[in-house]
């Protein structure tokens, strides 16, 4: 039985410490600053009993957990001691007016950003060179200010669970596999907090918040606890209607939080995570941990709780049951439902269809509407700022699939600040996919099977669709989102399935207005690394 790592649990006392710190801030100080010094190194890890090379932050795998409060300013100084560039993305943090803070891959960098008007369960991870497959990821939990209530009583503690598929092969070997044209093999294991299993300790009669994030490379999971119900409390920074579930699907890149009341006889109960929708369903991976009642002396009888049917329709119906709580406040005082997204006229529709592996310029690649993304030698935000020519393929991705021959490119779609856009993700393959948009939440208004057409729109949820930052797209199906483009910047729209992202299933959205104002976007940071074709310029 694995021991409980204090990095992944928070007792009630520490919960109140954070809230009291936030209260002191509200008493008259500016939003507080939290400083972190991180050193990134290679180091030995053995999550499966065999020593392998991992990527460590301050010697830790997974990396340090960040706990902060809404509107805190985070200063994270990263020293990269790897032998190649390293870059962190802060998954789900909106980086308001600050798309610079996805950083520049390099040696050292100091990230400066604010958890502006956000609350909830987030993660960070490395976003280049398949480093994510070796570690370097961690949890980022944003707690509410005391003036903004959450729609449930304060839990008696919370637990953070980083769940994901895992490979014994190193990230460099996985890169070689993909570069050779071969697919990634089936993962070797499913880890929870960097271990095959974990233990969570609580007292009978008390209620705990479980924060579950899928930090894997490409595999959906289902999560369940023997004999206990899961009351959904948060989805990627927003409050849903608190439906009760026996189990929850969490797809790659997604996060959920749910309340669990320890209302059973004091025993040890199985905490089960298992993979979903793998192409070989006979090879499902399972992690079995323990929910330990503090007074327990025996394990609960009976088999492990079974997973749900291995069908897309079951999971799709669960996704449709996730509803935005219209009366709850999130990080702001006003209720979530005060923004009536369903009444806003869309300015345009973008239909992005992924492709199965195709050979482009002699390489096996993934593409979006026929364009496979090539990472340029200069970060796109620098290219745009300094008007560097012949790097970006402006609007080179067709707004809808046009059947054109696949080609390489560096596509950026130009959009206007404050547009309201419909985006449809079309999946024509038998593999489950996830899509993530940096800088934004969006409303997941529809899921369906087959080919999307305009006739699907009457079935959209235009009242209380769940807001989130990562949406799943079911095999041979589609997902539709609505997004309010209120955050100026250069934002990555990517597959959250990391093999697909690495081989080109991504693009960028440039949200822009000619009006230059700090109320729209901050200027280039003084510590921005001017590299590639931007090296000759000054800040």
Offer a concise description of the structure.
The chain has helices spanning 12-26, 171-179, 312-321, 380-385, 498-502; strands at residues 9-11, 33-45, 52-57, 66-69, 73-80, 88-91, 108-114, 120-126, 138-143, 157-166, 189-192, 199-202, 207-214, 220-225, 230-235, 244-245, 247-250, 255-261, 268-276, 286-293, 348-353, 358-360, 363-365, 371-373, 393-394, 407-409, 411-416, 420-426, 433-437, 442-449, 467-468, 470-473, 477-484, 489-495, 506-512. By secondary structure, the chain is mainly beta.
Q: Please, could you describe this protein's structure?
A:
There is one protein chain. With 539 residues, this protein is mainly beta. The chain is built from five helices and 35 strands. Strands 1, 10, 11, 13, 15, 16 and 18 form a seven-stranded mixed β-sheet that branches. Mean pLDDT is 92; it is low at 19-28.
Key descriptive features of the protein:
globular, seven-stranded mixed sheet, 539 residues, single chain, 35 strands, mainly beta
Itemize the secondary structure elements and their pairings.
Blueprint: E1 9-11, H1 12-26, E2 33-45, E3 52-57, E4 66-69, E5 73-80, E6 88-91, E7 108-114, E8 120-126, E9 138-143, E10 157-166, H2 171-179, E11 189-192, E12 199-202, E13 207-214, E14 220-225, E15 230-235, E16 244-245, E17 247-250, E18 255-261, E19 268-276, E20 286-293, H3 312-321, E21 348-353, E22 358-360, E23 363-365, E24 371-373, H4 380-385, E25 393-394, E26 407-409, E27 411-416, E28 420-426, E29 433-437, E30 442-449, E31 467-468, E32 470-473, E33 477-484, E34 489-495, H5 498-502, E35 506-512
Parallel strand pairs: 2-5, 4-9, 10-13, 12-20, 21-28, 24-26, 25-27, 27-35
Antiparallel strand pairs: 1-10, 2-3, 5-7, 6-8, 8-9, 10-11, 13-18, 14-17, 14-19, 15-16, 15-18, 19-20, 22-23, 28-33, 29-32, 29-34, 30-31, 30-33, 34-35
């Amino acid at each position: 039985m694995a021991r409980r790592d204090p990095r992944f649990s928070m007792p009630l006392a520490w919960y109140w410490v954070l809230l009291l710190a936030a209260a002191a801030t509200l008493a008259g100080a500016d939003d507080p600053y939290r400083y972190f010094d991180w050193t990134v190194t290679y180091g030995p890890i053995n999550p499966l009993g065999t020593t392998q090379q991992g990527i460590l932050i301050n010697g830790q795998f997974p990396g340090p957990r960040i706990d902060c409060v809404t509107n805190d300013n985070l200063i994270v100084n990263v020293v990269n001691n790897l032998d190649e560039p390293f870059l962190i993305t802060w998954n789900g943090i909106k980086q308001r007016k600050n798309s610079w803070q996805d950083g520049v891959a390099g040696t050292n960098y100091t990230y400066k950003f604010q958890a502006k008007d956000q609350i909830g369960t987030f993660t960070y991870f490395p976003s280049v060179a398949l480093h994510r497959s070796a570690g370097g990821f961690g949890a980022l939990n944003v707690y509410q200010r005391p003036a903004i209530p959450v729609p449930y009583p304060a839990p008696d503690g919370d637990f953070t669970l980083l769940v994901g598929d895992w490979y014994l092969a190193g990230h460099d070997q996985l890169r070689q596999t993909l570069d050779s044209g071969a697919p990634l093999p089936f993962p070797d294991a499913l880890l929870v907090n960097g271990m095959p299993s974990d233990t969570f300790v609580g007292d009978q009669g008390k209620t705990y918040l479980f924060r579950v994030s899928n930090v894997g490379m490409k595999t959906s999971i289902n999560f369940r606890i023997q004999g206990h119900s899961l009351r959904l409390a948060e989805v990627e920074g927003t409050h849903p209607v608190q439906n009760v579930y026996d189990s929850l699907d969490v797809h790659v890149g997604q996060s959920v939080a749910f309340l669990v009341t320890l209302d059973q006889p004091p025993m040890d109960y199985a905490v089960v995570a298992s993979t979903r929708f793998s192409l070989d369903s006979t090879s499902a991976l399972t992690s079995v941990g323990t929910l330990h009642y503090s007074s327990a002396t025996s394990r609960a009888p009976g088999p492990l709780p079974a997973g749900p049917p291995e069908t897309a329709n079951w999971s799709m119906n669960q996704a449709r049951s996730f509803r935005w709580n219209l009366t709850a406040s999130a990080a702001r005082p006003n209720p979530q439902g005060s923004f009536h997204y369903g009444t806003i006229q869309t300015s345009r529709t973008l239909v992005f269809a992924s492709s199965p592996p195709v050979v482009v310029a002699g390489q096996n690649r993934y593409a979006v509407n026929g364009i496979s993304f090539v990472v340029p030698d200069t970060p796109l935000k620098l290219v745009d700022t300094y008007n560097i020519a012949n790097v970006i393929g402006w609007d080179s991705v067709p707004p809808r699939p046009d059947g054109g021959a696949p080609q390489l490119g560096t596509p950026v779609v130009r959009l206007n600040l404050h547009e309201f856009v419909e985006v449809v993700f079309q999946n024509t393959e038998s593999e489950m996919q996830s899509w993530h948009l940096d800088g934004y939440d969006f409303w997941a208004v529809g899921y369906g099977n087959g080919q999307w057409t305009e006739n699907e729109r009457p079935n959209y949820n235009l009242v209380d669709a769940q807001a989130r930052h990562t949406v799943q797209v079911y095999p041979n199906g589609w997902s539709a989102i609505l997004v309010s483009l209120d955050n100026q910047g250069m934002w990555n729209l990517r597959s959250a399935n990391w093999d697909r992202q690495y081989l080109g299933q991504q693009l960028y959205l440039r949200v822009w207005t000619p009006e230059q104002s700090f109320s729209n976007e901050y200027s280039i940071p003084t510590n921005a690394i001017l590299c590639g074709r931007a090296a000759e310029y000054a800040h």
